[in-house]
Structures are given as C-alpha cells and as structure tokens.
Amino acid sequence: MDNRISIVFTVNNSYAQHCCVAMVSVLENNLTSSIDFYILTDYFSDENKKLFVSVVERYGNNNRVEFKLVDHAIFEGFKLHIKYITCHTYYRLLIADLFPELTRILYLDADLIVDGSIAELWKTPLEGYLYAGVNDSWIERIKYKYSIGLQESDIYINAGVILMNLEAMRNENITALLMDVAEKYCDKFEYQDQDIINWALKGKIKEVPVIYNYTTEEVLHTRTESPVIIHYTGRIKPWSINEECCNPLRNLYFEYLKKTPYKGFIGMFKRERLIRTIKKMCGVNINPKKIKIALIIDEYFGGMGTAFGGYGFLARYYIARYLPNEEMSVEVLLGKNSNKWEYRAKKKKIDGVTIIVPPGRKFVYKWLKRTNYDVYLTVELTHDLLKYEHRGKPIIHWIQDPRPWTEWQEIQTVKLFTESCYWNSELYDMVNRFYCNGQLKFISQGYFLNEKAKVLYRLPEDADITYCANPIDIDYTFDPATYKKKNHIIFIGRIESVKRGWLFCEIAKRMPQYEFFMLGQTFREKKENEVVMSAYKSGIPNLHFVGHVEGEEKNVYIRDAKILVNTSIHEALPITFLEALAYGTLLVSCRNPEDLTSKFGKFVGTVLGDGFDEVPKFVSAIEEIMSDEERRKKLSCEAVSYIREVHSVQKFQRDMRQLIKDSVTKK
Fold this sequence. Notes:
Spore Coat Polysaccharide Biosynthesis Protein SpsA, Chain A; Rossmann fold
C-alpha cells in the first residue's frame, strides 16, 4: 500500500474556509504521514487556491494539494431534497474515474474536523468491498432503510467519510452504475447521493468504527471515547451565526480555525453573536420561524394507547415522519381530555414527535390560543377540537374516508355483530362552516371520494378539492418480473365487523391448495370479534393467524403473497391496497376504490350483509388469478409501475409542503 494518504473534498468556493479547517485538522494530527489533498470543484478563486497551497506547504513533509475542475453541467437535473445541500455532493460519484492513478482514496465532507490519527482507517483492508464507512445512526433511528428498499440488517453508512476502493470500482465500472442510478432515481431518494451509494452498492460496503465519523446525532445520543473524526451533520453548523449549533464538540472547529488563514472569521463571529445576544435580551425574536403544524387525528397506530387503524398508520409512519423539515415542524393532537376541568395537556414523545392530549373543554380554547399553531392538518376530522379554534387559522382537511349516511346504511346490513356508528352531524356542519368562511382547504387521497365528501359536508358541486395521493415507502430494489412469489394469500387489517374477517376464513376453508395468512388484531368490540373468530382458529390447517406485524416482517408477507383479499363491507382507499400493489400483490375485493381492484386484480361486485352467501365469488376470483400466471405477472408489473409513479414519499413531501406553505401565506 502507498505510504501517502490521498484525501478528496468536493466543495465550492463559498466553503473554502471550512474545507481549509478540515484540511488543517488532518495535518495537525497526522504529522508523520505524507498527504495528498484533492479539491473537486466547479470554481475556486485564485486567492483561495494560494491560501490552501501555503497551508499545505507550511506543514512540510512533502504534502500536496491539487484542484480538479468538474463540469457542473453533468449534474443538471439531479434533484436535491435537502435545502442546505448543493449539487457538489454528487461529485463523489465520479471519484473512481477522476483518479485512475490511485488504488484507494479517503473522501471527507468539508463540515468536519479530524482530531486524531487516520492511519489505521487508511490501512483498513478492502478486499471484497468497494466502500468502507460508519453506520448512520440517524437513519437507524428514523427507520428509513425500508423506504429505499433496504432491509434492517443492511448497512447504511453516512457518506461524509468514505474510504474508497478505487481499483475495484473501476474494474466493476461503478461510476457508470452510480450515475445511471442517479439519473433514473435521484428524485425518489430523500438523501441524494448518500441513498444512491447505499442502495446501489448494497453488500459491498464495509463498516468501520464510529470514531471515524462521529456525527452530531451520535454526540447527542451516545458517548464515544476519543473520536477521531467529528462530523457536524445537520443544517446548523458551529459557524452558524443566527442559530446555535447543538453539537457539544462545536468549539473544536474554532480551535483548528485559529491555525488557518481564515482565522479573522472568529472576531466577526463573536461580534455577530454578541449582537444576537443583545437582541435576544431586548425581546427581539432572533430565531427563524418554522411553520408550526398541528396534525389532528384520533389514533396514532398504537401510540398513547390508541387504535391500530389506517388513519393512525398514515399519521405516524408518513405524515409525522416525512413532513417535518428545516421549514416546518409537526405536533400531533389527539382528542381533548374527557375531563372538562383538566387544565394541563398530556404530552409524550413517540419516534421523536410530540403527541398531545389537549386540556379539557374548559381550558382548551386558551391552550390553543397560547400554543398558536400556524396551520391545522386534519385526517378526515373525527373529533371536535377545532370547535375551540377562533383565530381563523388555516385548516387543510385531508379527505380519507368520508361516510355519507348511505354508506352507514350499507355498513349496518352486517348482522353478525354491528359496527359502532360514529355519525356526527355537528362535526360535519362545523367542517362546512370552516369551508364556507374560506378557512378550510380540502385535499383528497382519491378522486372517487370527492362526491362522497360533497354529500357529507354539504359542499357545492364546484367545490375546490385538490388531489393529494397517500404516500407509501417503496422498495425500488423489488423486481416483480423476476421475484418468485409463493401460493400465499393474505388479509391485512383490524379484525372487526366492518372488515368481515370471517369471510377470509371461509374462503381459506374452501381453498386448501393455498396458504392463507391473516395479519391484524382486534381493538374495538374486542370481545364480540373474538367470539366470532374463535370458531376458525382450529380445524383449518392452511389458515394462519399471524396477529399484528409491522416493518420488514409485514413486508415479507406482502412480498411473498400473490393476492391480497379484502372482504370489507366498506373501504375508502386503504394503505394496505397500496402496500400490496407496491410489491405486485394483486387485489381481490368487493370494494373497487379508484378502480384499482378491477385494474390490478378482480372486483367481485358489491357484497352486503354478513356475506357468507357470496364466498364463492371470492373463491372464483382467486382461482382465476392463480390459474393464469402470465396474466398475473403482467398485472403485477403494471401495479408496481403505477405505485412508483403516483404514491412515492418524495411526491407527497413536495406536494404537501407546498400546500402548507400556500395555506399559511394566504391566511
């Protein structure tokens, strides 16, 4: 191995100071090594180049610095989803081909400092691997891997520190692969080239100790002895003037800054921070204001003891998880406290999001006024909290499952045991008033729901309703054309009256040649449900009661199944339909939301009542699909394409964030 250490940064001219600090920190702590620095840039001023050269020469030891210009136009059209990131982040995809004379190189972000020797990192064996890096604890914490098709066991590195096996990368033509993935899928990935690297090079990345990329997330949540590389991840950096960096090791940046030609920044920084402190003491608001969103919901998928329903799943795993960014924050409001004299709000952090049960009705008005949300986002309003909102704040009402009385009449044809009716005229009239006074904006997850919403909320025929599809995490590594599915048929949902799970059991009884898996559990009317379902829990060997499952365990059932059966007497457009179609699992149902069942499966027609006499229709539909593998494969591929086009998380983030900004601007 070459005794010289090769290090590459990708920066623009505006980041010269911070890159120089990183470079000096390397030199200070690796005095016995000869180091070659490479700066990939689209522009670097002559003045900054001279300063960099002078710094490297000052340390002697035959250290060198070289500047390489990259054609920025190569990356035109590549998407950026993080506001403070520039297209220079994509330069690292080209590194293997830009340095044909090198066998390995250490890539470093410029927002870090090296506080120890990197000799051991440089010597890391890379046989059988293309990259080596540190596992990203933030990605682990937010359960993000599934959204880009990785499994929980797959390593996902933070791309701020990467040891690259350039020789192996050239042998496998990795640059072309990475660029191809970037061109095709960059709009699908939240973390730009970092996602691309981890997704495309799955199984070829080696994990190194956390001391070599000690991120802000790590500093705040874990204790690591003697970290070598401290990485100031996130929007707010040690040098940020208007906001305080939360990294306890932020002062190390200034210790190394003192040893660079850019040390004059320290005086300016202290002066501006002093001005900021004085303004704060005088009552001047010095913090950039985020849009404060209140997500109103009556369940949070098990959070704070709530039900495991579709609304809660959408709220917990998509809205609260993917909507917040540096411009907006989300708090979840459940129904107000049932004790009217309760003056305090109950709060709990779940997955990093604040969940709140507001005070009782005697105090909730003042609490809402004091809390001062900028906008309310409701998922089919199901409780009257907004009755106490009198300041005219904008409301975005996301139509998910509007139920006019005709829908309830159908639901009530089930006689085995009845679904609780939560018809609430007062609530629907309140939504109407909000709309008529211009305070409420309707959005809808499905075009077919708009007419139902107009009836339920007594809206005019020309009511403005904007389409906003529900998002789902999409596994872009899944190939429906080649994946070998099993003869499995699944049911996913709460086991309750409206779902009529007993019909799924009856179907399984009539089709012993296939394996049936029932995913879900009882919540409401638990006793009545269990009495009905207990009769099916023995004596049907091909019927398996799985219970409540989430994450990858749930994905495995969906991915392996050929058909999702839905026996509900009522549905809007359930998330489970979208999850199934994302894995090419076809639909058999007596509900046909947005015509998806008839497009990607078999619609058996409306089935009212308890449904026992219509079981043969489901059996026939399942057999029709299972007996024509060529057609099933074709529909499976078409289903996956549809989901990727319409229901991606990135599309949801873009559209919903813009809707929120527009509503706040117009208030």
